[in-house]
Specification:
The protein is of the alpha+beta class. The protein has a domain at 36-103: Ybab, Chain: A (2-Layer Sandwich), CATH 3.30.1310.10. 55% of the residues lie in helices and 16% in strands. A three-stranded antiparallel sheet has the order 1-2-3. A hairpin with a 4-residue loop joins strand 2 and strand 3. The radius of gyration is 22 Å and the shape is rod-shaped. The relative contact order is 0.15.
């Protein structure tokens, strides 16, 4: 009489799991906004701080790089520090996503959708 209910029960379970995963992914996005990484260049003369989501939130520049004749070098150091921070943010984000995937029982190396 209720022959098809097993399939519906499985579907409800899958929907619940999908909702749980969506909630966890939202929580992870919030966590990534709170994690910061620092990139640097010029042996620390320029430091850029970004969230693990890649948003630049700070820049620390040693005033010694502001020499008018060395304008291009200063710009290069600033860009290099920002790129370093973004690379570190991407790496940290992937680490955190991997931890979340493991916690959800997903296979290692599975990419989450963002």
């Amino acid at each position: 009489m209720f022959k098809g209910m097993g399939g519906l029960g499985d579907m409800a379970g899958m929907m619940k799991k999908a909702q749980e995963m969506q909630t966890k992914m939202g929580e992870m996005q919030d966590a990534l906004s709170a994690i910061t990484v620092t990139g640097e260049s010029g042996a620390g003369l320029v430091k850029a701080t970004a969230t693990a989501k890649g948003e630049l939130v700070g820049l620390d520049i040693d005033p010694s790089i502001f020499v008018p004749s060395e304008k291009e070098m200063a710009e290069d150091l600033i860009l290099a520090a920002i790129k370093d921070a973004q690379a570190r943010a991407s790496e940290r984000s992937q680490q955190e996503m991997g931890k979340m995937a493991e916690g959800l029982g997903l296979p290692p190396g599975m990419k989450l959708p963002f």
